[in-house]
Fold BTB domain-containing protein.
Amino acid sequence: MTSNLVKEDNIADIEFTQLLEDFSLASNLDNISSNHAATSTTAAQQNRTSPFTMSPLLTLTQKESGNTRDYINDIVSSSVYPPPAQDPQRVLRQMMSLCKHIYSRGLIEGSGSDVTIKAFDKDYHLHRIILYQNSYFSVLLEGPWKESGQKDIELRFDDENITRDAFEIALGRLYGRLDEVILPSQVLSLLATASFLDLQDLCEMCVEVILRDIKEDTVVHYLTFATSHFYGTHSEKITESCFTYLCREGYDNLRLRPAFLTLPAEWLKRVIESDAFWVPSEYERYLFARDVVSKRRKIAAEQKRHNLVSSSLVNYTDLSNLSSDISFPTSPTSPTITNSPIKAKRFPDSTFSYHTRRSASVSTLSSICSSNSLQAESDEAIYTAIFTYAIYYAHMAFEELTAISHDCDSITNVPLAPDYILKDALWHQIDLRNKIENAAETDVTLGISSSEIPPSSTGVHFEIPSDDTTHIGEALTGLEDMIGGGTKAMKDGEGRGSVEYSLFAPFRFSVEFADVAKLKEKQRVYSGTKFYAGSNWNMYIQKIKTPRKGIQLGVYLHRHSMPDPSSSCGNNTNSSTMVNGSSTNKSSPSSSPGTEERYRQTIHMKINNEKSFSRYADKRKTVRTWFKIFCPARGPSHVLTQFQSSPDNFALMQSWGWRSSSLCQDDYLLDVRDFDSSSSSITNNSSSTLKFSVVMGHV
């Protein structure tokens, strides 16, 4: 800081010396100008024959002297009194002092108040000039409303989430209290209040706090809040982030399992049926749904039994003696009636001016029981939908389908998956195999797509992507267009056009890569192989450095090989292979922290040590396949990225994929609990893992 000040002082001295020289030059020019003017006057007096003719010397002298004086004036105004050096710390201290003064004298003490806002049974002595900065109060105080000319204005809120504490925090921000720490315990009420008052910067701060606080014991609470109260894009962002978190962590995070027991049934179905839901295979998707639904049914049965016992102990005679017009005060967060002309009675323990009253009656308990019964029926309908069309059985092994057919729910004693669904899946599996085995080696397509919506026993239709796009949240950017894994530099757009539908359900699987941050340049890491339609498929990632884009991560879908139906083989291999030059090292995904507790309920069936009926080889040299790859961010943004590819040709050992700059950022690699907000970097104790979910299908 000292060196900078000295440097500025030196510059000022130089400017002052130059200023003296300019003044000396100006004086000389003035003297010369006077002499020239006198000479010109004498010449003019002598030559009166041309009164309107001006001497060239006079004209030049006046212009030069005038410009010189203007130059001197500019120098004086800009250099004689240069602005003082601005110290950012001093400016910040002055701003903080001013904000503190406005907050303490203006909001706390109410000095010079010219308007009184009444809310929550309290008078707030405020100032119009301060409130005008806010769009809500500006419209209220200056718009064509009766309140605009009043000194006392009463505010009524119809949102039960708006509280007195949150309202005062919002007012504090208008009065310069910018250092208020937002706690998770108050963030929802503060978001509701800020949204009501149109304090968008405060809303964004609340959303940031919520996203960082999404974890096992809060995700359901935040999701329920965001879906039951609409606060514009802020509710949408919270909903999407909670959904991404459930899709990423739901399967293998045992601490998150209780959240699925209290999650609304509709959202349970949305997570399980989502292509972005990370689960190793479709059979394990079924096992996950079976476990969660069975436990939820047990909880519902216990609750129903408890309600029956409670109802038998209720003394309806005592309830009937209660007067139907007795009103009970609601909680302090109850909504108010804004349009009611009748004012309700005030209770001394209430913090609201107006309340919605509820009367107790004999029918209260029966209404609750009826509501619970309706909710149970709705949940059961959703459970049926989960096992009917949220799970794609067509690509499961015959042994897995056999095991599912023997599964019955312990509460209802009914098979979880409908029998006709399993038979339909097996038929589709045989039909697809027949088309592949009867195709010529030179055939690329199978003719299993249609421009018309095909009939389906489940009512579900599978649209084939018609373009190559990347869908990503607003929090991160930098994703590039699709590129080829081989010699093809960029997708050629083949397959684009009108909407096409697949006649068969797509194939889904998920993989995980650990320690991605330690991946060396040009080093490939392959996932375990997955069998689909006569070929073994896998994914691999590769770190690439380009001169223009810097470090990027390549994400590729790879047609690995043809299976040998005559050999004893398992369904899939779960290990990943790291390739760097000529060396090959095996690394298991289970080395990542917490994976030893991974939820694995897969039973050991004959498929693990015998030939399977569902295994065969596709001898075609090239197949045409569409696919999507989903990658959720681990960091506080909880962004879900989707790479989408229209049908493209896959020869053996050929891959297609993307290069992405964003996937190398901490928001994707680092868990939100390990995210260091001060350094925003990956620490040595953190594990940088990426999870990918893939959905694909032939055409």
Remarks:
- The two ends are 69 Å apart (CA to CA).
- DSSP finds 18 helices and 21 strands in the chain.
